Structures are given as structure tokens and as C-alpha cells.
Amino acid sequence: MEYLPVQDESRIECVMCIVNPRGKPRRFFLLYQSECPGNGRKEHRDIAKLESGSGCSEVNAESGANMFRTFTDVVAHTLCFVVFFVTFIPSLLFSMLWKMIVRVLLYLEYGSNAELMAACDAVSAHKPAPSKEGLINALFHIRGSIPLKEIRRRVSENLVCAQTVDGRSLYPRLMRCVQSKYGLYVWNQAETFDLHWHVDYFRDEAGTKVTYKNREDQLDVIQKIINAPMFDSKTSPWRVLLVNKEDGSDCILVLRCHHSMLDGGAAFMVVLPAVADQIKGSDGFGNIKPSSKVVRMRNKVLGMLCVPHIISRQLCLRDNNPLRSAANVEEPPSGKWCYWSDPIPLAKVTEVRKKTNVRFSAVLITCIGRAVTRYLKLPEVAKTFKGNAMISAYQAVSMWTPEDVPSLENKITGIATGITPNPSKNALEQLLEANENQEHWLRQEFLWGSYTFSNLTTNTVPHVIPEKFIIPWLLGGVTMFVSSAMGPSNFFTVNGNEVYSLTGIMPLPPTTCLGFIMLSYGDKLAVSVTGRKYAFPELEDLKKLDTMLHEEFDNVHNAIVAQD
């Protein structure tokens, strides 16, 4: 989900700088850069000398050692290369042949009303089959109240009934459901489709529309929504739900959509412009950067060569902490919590980035790592675990291109990286270390390698294989999912009412207990924390973590910027 296009490109800072092996920054689809240094590593060393009086050689040495920490890591990498090229590629070619045969069978049986599911992050992290674990929940906070019939009209005109110039449906998947055919997942025409059901009030079991009185009541309603049952498998997996405040002064529009249809970024980019009033300038896709076919082909080839390295990286993760240990009990509690508080001023992040010339994501990862580490040291948490806790994050990165817009298709990938801050280092040193780690892994070759692997295994081999073996193997050792997105700089309105905040709720896979979504909107950075109940028995536990995260943004800002 990293990063959404923004309305005013002039305000984009160094959100993410993808650096090639020679150290030259590049623009990479939705990953922007404006004031990035010509050689990130050299600039980081100079800053370290200036700010802390010492060089950055220790950080660089440790960053370079992250790839091969032990002899076992070297052996694991080597075996992955051998296994991949000797066994995986031949079986993959056979699977691709089977995929071509299935396409023909589908066309003979359903004509143009059915299509194979394209590669998307959903299958790599969630089952596309009906499961509430894979549901995205995007929240639009709106001042005042909006008539439900107006929301239905806009969704119908701008999404469901929208057509291309030649009369074809612009979003055909909105009226399709996911089915399993011949071992692969297929988008097929939904047996039932009722717009009044897809766009409705959130209702309780008795069918009565639900409202909220205050902030605590609002949180309680959202917990019920994100844990509500999945939709009927015979209809399209999306809904837009309206929840009003009792006094009419506020309301929330909730998009519930399965990850196989939309990723989080697409959810905001497609749905917000569809329900909002007239938008000035960009429609939400205007800042997607083009890339020539030659460059894309080169990156795909390099990505293919990096696939074994990506796989072995997952095997070498050192991920061990008390949040995961609770999942090993016989009957862990099901469901999840979500929590968000006041947004963080975006200036705090951009000021730290400008002062240190690090990536936007490095600031976020540093603050998250410091907050989670503090949380793990709480007596009530630490008592369940002995030893040094190690944590890692699976970071989502957009792979959208102009050719993908506006189709409802996931084009994102992710890289798993260790983020545990070194307690012997100060905030600046931790920040530089995180930036070096980001620079090492968030390179074009590795991003394309991860995406290539997802692209090759998603709906190419029979879905039983990735769901039973590949997904638990790759994601089973990751503590958290982190997704950061740059939203529009101007505020939207719906029916004249201001959309004053956007919140995303992380669709955690069963193997992962914690997730963070950070979304900028206007001059604020909204932060939401999602946690599984087996790791966070009470909502108060997530509130503690959220408080610590806000404190760490202040601490890092004070240590690096405010000291002047």
C-alpha cells in the first residue's frame, strides 16, 4: 500500500527512495523522491559525524552483515538457489501450462463472464476464498450526516455502473465473486447482486441500524464491524456501510472489501473519489509515474534472479517474542482489535527526514520498533518470555503502473526486515541503522524479486500448495505487517461535509499478531494499530502500544530536531 498518490506533488518529500546497487536514486512507480541525496550512504556517514561526532561504519558493517549472520544463513541461501533453479522452475513451467489450459476451459464454459484471478498480495497473505481474515476495512470519518440514498447513488453511478468509452463495465469485478475452478481461483459472475445490500447502514443481528454516542461507543461499533462474519460466497466480496452518530454531528463510512479485490491503497484511491464531491486537479491517480517497457522487463529479469534470495531471507529471520508465544496455546482467542487515537502532525516526520536525509519509511520503522520494544519490556508482557525478543516487519510496497489503472487489481509486494532497535544506540543511530536496512532491502531488484515470486505462485500453482505450505512458511515468522501511505494533501467533502480523517484497519493473516497502517491526509499522519486477541487480550493493551508509538514520534523528533 505504499504509497498513495497525492494531490499536490510539490509537497512530497523523500517518501521512499529506491536505490540501485550503484547508489543512484530512482523514481519507482508510486515511490517518490524530490530532495534525495545522490549517494545515500555517503550522506548518512557525514550526518552521523556531524550530529553524533562519530562515523557510521558500525551501522554499515552491521547492515552488511544482516544478509549472512551465520554459516547456517549462508547454507540456507545456497540451498534455496539450488532448490529454486533445479526443482521449482520446471514445476512452475508445468503449472503455467495448466493455467493456459484452464483459461481455455473457462472461456468455453463461461465466455467472457469469468476470468482467472490475477497475481495479488491477497493470495500470498490471505485465502481469496470467503474468510474475514482477508477483509480490508477502510474508514472515512465525515463531519455531519449524509443520506444513505446519496451514497448509493454515487457508488452506483461512479463504480458499479461506470463504463468505458466502448460501453464495457469499468469495474466488472464489483459484480463478480471468487470461486475455485480446476484448482485455481476464478472471478465469476455473482449469483446474486443487490446494491441496497452492498451499500447500507451497519445493522445488528435484528436488522436495526447501529449508531454511536461517543468515542468509546464508536470504537466498540468498529470492533464489531471488523470481526463481523464474511459475506455470502455467492455475492461480490465488498460492502459500503454507513454508521451515524446519534446527534447527527458525525458519521463514518466503512468500506469492507476482500483483499483479493482491492489492496488498501486502491481502496482509498478508487472509493474516495467515487463518493466525494467534485475533486479539483488529480483524481487520485495522476501522480503514478510511467516506466518504459524496456525498464520494466529489465527489472523483472533482475527480480527473477533475486527470487531465491528473497525466499532465503524469510528463512533467516530472527523473530522471537512473547507476542507470538501466545499463539501456541491449544485454543487461542479468535478475532482482533483495532485502535487509533489523534493523528500525528506530519511535520514531525518530514522534519526528522530533512534533518537526517533518511527515507520517510525509515522514520516510521524506527518509531514502531522503539514502541514495540518498549511494549515487550512491560512486566505483564515480559513475564511470559525469557531471552531477548527479536521482531520483524513485513512491509507492503506498491507495484502499480499506469497500465493498471483503474482496474481493481492488487499490484503490491512486500519485504520482511528485522527492526529491533539496538538499545545501546541513541535515536539518531537507530534511525540511520533502520535507513541502511531499508536501503539494503527496498531496492528495485529485491522488490521485483518479491513481486515476481508472488506473481509466479499466485493462482499459477493449485491454491492448495501456497495455502498449506508456502504461506505459513514465508509469513509464519513475521511479527507484524507495516503499511504506510501518502494520501491527498487537500481535504475531500462528501455531500458538502468534510472528510476530516482516513483510517485503515490491517487485514492480518492468521500467522501475524500485529499490524500498523500509517496514512497521511492533509497535514496529519493517521496511525491505526491492529492486534490479534491471542496477543492482546484486551483493547487496553493496544491503547498502551498506541500511546508508546505517539511518544516515540515525540522522542525521536526531540532527539534529532528539537535539540536545535
UniProtKB/TrEMBL annotation:
A single cellular component GO annotation: plasma membrane
Ranges where the O-acyltransferase WSD1 C-terminal domain occurs: 425-543
PANTHER family linked to this entry: O-ACYLTRANSFERASE (WSD1-LIKE) FAMILY PROTEIN, WAX ESTER SYNTHASE_DIACYLGLYCEROL ACYLTRANSFERASE 4-RELATED
A Pfam family reported for this protein in Swiss-Prot or TrEMBL: WS_DGAT_C
Name by which UniProt lists this protein: O-acyltransferase WSD1 C-terminal domain-containing protein
Gene Ontology annotations of biological process type: triglyceride biosynthetic process
Organism: Notodromas monacha
Ranges annotated as spanning the membrane: 74-98
Annotated GO MF terms: O-acyltransferase activity
The keyword Transmembrane appears for this protein: yes
Keyword Transmembrane: yes
Domain of life: Eukaryota
Highest classification ranks of the organism: Eukaryota, Metazoa, Ecdysozoa, Arthropoda, Crustacea
